[in-house]
Specification:
It is built from nine helices and no strands. It is mainly alpha-helical and about 200 residues long.
């Protein structure tokens, strides 16, 4: 018993997704940790959306819809006992790749920073496609801590708007705004093409 307790105490500083959580407070801490670790790159995408003067409601709706897809796929992997190989999810990279190529081909028809033209479904698709690392963490995390699944999902739901406001703050920084004002018509589609290739490769 003592050896077992010592081993567990040694694991506390690092919240490992594959470790079973014994309390609600620990589940919340682990949820915040896994959410932040898997969505750091999403902050960059959010800053791009807001620098493009997208409305908060539209971005947040796209984020919730896309993240709901990530959670649904993670639950599917959990319930299907990983019957669907996680490697297959890399093909989601086709979504941002297609969006980037389309915008690059129509670059002459679009204003550099005109009215916002990202649809909710486009934002959701990009969020979903960028969730490959989320799936790799969430599937085992959900499976091992299924008794706290409600707490985990509630924590993720509460963290999404915080992430959106953080992305808005970044997107309103003068350096980012000036860069997108000057190079946005090339920069934005290039980011999505690079993201799509990264996910696919």
């Amino acid at each position: 018993m003592a050896a077992s307790g010592s081993q567990r105490s040694g694991e506390v500083p690092n919240v490992v997704p594959h470790t079973e959580i014994s309390s609600v407070s620990a589940a919340i801490v682990a949820s915040v940790t896994t959410f932040a670790a898997t969505n750091v790159d999403d902050l960059f995408l959010l800053s791009v959306f807001f620098a493009r003067r997208e409305h908060m409601r539209r971005v947040m709706a796209g984020q919730y819809l896309g993240f709901a897809g990530i959670v649904a796929l993670s639950m599917l992997g959990f319930w299907a006992a990983l019957a669907i190989p996680l490697a297959w999810f890399r093909f989601l990279g086709i979504l941002p790749l297609a969006i980037g190529i389309k915008r690059l081909l129509h670059i002459r028809k679009a204003e550099v920073l005109g009215a916002s033209n990202f649809r909710v479904l486009s934002i959701a698709a990009i969020t979903l496609a960028n969730g490959g690392d989320n799936l790799a963490v969430y599937v085992p995390f959900f499976a091992v801590n299924s008794k706290h699944l409600g707490v985990i999902l509630a924590s993720y739901t509460a963290l999404l708007p915080i992430w959106c406001f953080a992305g808005q703050w970044l997107g309103e920084r003068p350096l980012i705004l000036r860069s997108l004002d000057r190079y946005g018509h090339w920069f934005v589609p290039t980011v999505f093409i690079a993201l799509g290739l990264y996910i696919l490769i």
